[in-house]
Design a protein that fits this description.
The chain has 260 residues and is mainly alpha-helical. It folds into three domains: 1-73, no CATH class; 75-182, no CATH class; 184-260. It is built from eleven helices and three strands, in the order H-H-H-H-E-E-E-H-H-H-H-H-H-H. It has helices spanning 2-13, 16-36, 51-71, 75-95, 116-132, 142-161, 165-169, 174-180, 185-203, 206-227, 231-259; strands at 98-100, 103-109, 112-114. Strands 1-2-3 form a three-stranded antiparallel sheet. Strand 2 and strand 3 form a beta hairpin.
Length: 260
């Protein structure tokens, strides 16, 4: 009876589909490492003299550690330490990291160097999970959404300030976590638009981004004003469209000033 109860508990508390996707990505990456280093006589994928064999050791160790975290340690333990761990890692990144090739977000423990920014991704995930699992939490509530957004943005901005923009960009992936938990598709679309404008401004010219803003804004107004007969809703459409357009223009000029 206990085994059946445990089995039902694992099915309810563990996202097995996510684990399958994660394992598939690991396998895909491992196969790519094996294919990339082959030259001449092919060797075994488990050959420890090759990168693929060394990667296999890391994968095995990571899977053992993941199993311990999932099935041995009480999940409430992570919830209890999430806030403290989040703050501690932020403090370490700001005050105790070293400068390595212009990047300030590095720790040195003897011969070992690692980035506390990597730990920050874990603690951010823990705090975000703790907050979103609270009774009554709804992503459609603006207060709840802002709280979740701040949890992600604070470490992201700290890492950017430490000249580690590449690591900070990984935090953009949290937008899909928020979407999965109920974030409006419109906000996800606005985020995608912001990323597109940012890249266009850096890679081309600011006026190209302004043309894109003008075209998208025109299509937005034509589409929604045709479908809306209520004067109140029309005003809302115009207000939201103008606000998004102004914010987009501000983003374009900010990116142009900073990167050009």
């Amino acid at each position: 009876m206990q085994e059946r109860s445990l089995d039902r508990g694992l099915r309810k508390t563990v996202d097995w589909r996510l684990i399958v996707v994660y394992l598939a990505l690991i396998l895909f990456g491992w196969m790519n490492i094996y294919a990339a280093v082959q030259s001449g006589e092919p060797s075994s994928i488990f050959d420890l003299g090759c990168n693929s064999g060394k990667q296999a050791l890391w994968i095995a160790g990571a899977l053992v550690l993941a199993a311990l975290l999932l099935f041995v340690i009480n999940p409430y333990f992570w919830d209890s330490i999430s806030n403290s761990a989040y703050l501690v890692v932020l403090v370490l990144v700001i005050f105790m990291s070293n400068n390595v090739k212009g990047s300030h977000s590095w720790f040195e423990l003897g011969p070992v160097k690692f980035q506390p920014a990597e730990l920050s991704k874990i603690t951010t995930s823990l705090v975000l999970a703790s907050v979103m699992s609270r009774p009554g939490f709804k992503m459609s509530n603006w207060k709840h959404f802002l709280l979740a957004a701040l949890i992600v943005l604070i470490p992201m901005l700290v890492i950017v300030a430490e000249s580690e923009t590449g690591s900070a960009l990984v935090y953009a992936g949290f937008i899909f976590v928020l979407y999965r938990e109920g974030l409006s598709g419109w906000l996800l679309a606005l985020f995608g638009m912001a990323v597109l404008l940012f890249v266009l401004t850096i890679k081309t010219h600011w006026w190209v981004s302004l043309i894109v803003i003008a075209v998208v804004s025109l299509l937005y107004f034509i589409h929604f004003l045709r479908r809306t007969s209520s004067l109140r809703l029309r005003r809302r459409v115009v207000r939201n469209g103008l606000a998004a357009a102004v914010a987009s223009v501000a983003l374009v000029f900010a990116a142009d000033v900073i990167f050009h």
